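Example record for the data management plan.
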Amino acid sequence: MQKQSIAPYICVQYFKEFLSFVTTGLNAEIIEEKRDSEGVVLYATIEIQGSTIRIQEAWDKESATPAMLYIYVNDVKLAAKNAVNSGALMFDKGENPFGEEDAVVVDMWGNYWWFAQRG
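Corresponding structural encoding:
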């Protein structure tokens, strides 16, 4: 698998809860965790649909960095349902101007996850 040149990096408050959300609600796989000498996770790298995202605990509310991420999935309705069942809110759904079915959810950290299915 070719490494991607750009990888999103998201800082969130309540890091453990966010990892639980992305693994359960977005079917992410944790592929790396960097820990300090006391075993505290400093950051994690997750993979969703073949792309990686690095995540770390924000130092404070001002250092949190929410994102908007566009993800191609095989089943938009299922992806959105799983995210909502894990605590995200449905923001929008339908068809985008490119003829792709899509749905947008926003998680508890202010990240927008835009699911699309190629036509």
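Summary line stored alongside the record: The mean pLDDT is 91.
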